[in-house]
């Protein structure tokens, strides 16, 4: 995985290093803004998880990784808003960028170009007023909410 440019924009979600950690973090937070930022960072992590390169297959690998991440993130949040808004926006933007910058047989965007597009789209979702964590009892039942800063 490449270094994640823009990690600092995503607050507490940026502590996650892979999609599995993002999915676990999502199950412990509440609030639309925090969810949006976490999901956007999950998409950025996925875009960065490919090896990268200048060939069309490298660009397609980024798009395929984004499609997989979208399915995983949407499923983890039961295909509800705001998750589906964020994943759809980021995937659509990346796909559109790749399509508009491709001249069949001889020119296409690099994987890094697509990752940059993902970062720019994901930045729209980075404003979080307060990060809140769900407090669960020993049985996993939510018993409260607490600011992450206070934990």
Features:
5 helices; elongated; mainly alpha; 151 residues; 3 strands
Topology:
Layout: H1 19-26, E1 29-30, H2 32-48, H3 56-76, H4 83-100, H5 111-122, E2 132-136, E3 142-147
Helix pairs in contact: 1-2, 2-3, 2-4, 2-5, 3-4, 3-5, 4-5
Can you summarize this structure?
By secondary structure, this protein is mainly α.
Structural class: mainly alpha
C-alpha geometry: elongated
Give the ordered list of helices and strands.
HEHHHHEE
What portion of residues belong to β-strands? 5-15%
What do these coordinates show?
With 151 residues, the protein is mainly alpha-helical. Helix content is 50%, strand content 9%. The model has no long low-confidence stretch (mean pLDDT 95). A hairpin with a 5-residue loop joins strand 2 and strand 3 (142-147). It has helices spanning 19-26, 32-48, 56-76, 83-100, 111-122, and strands at 29-30, 132-136, 142-147. The protein has five helices and three strands; from the N terminus they run αβααααββ. The longest helix is centred in the middle third of the chain and has 21 residues, at 56-76. It has a three-stranded antiparallel β-sheet with strand order 1-2-3.
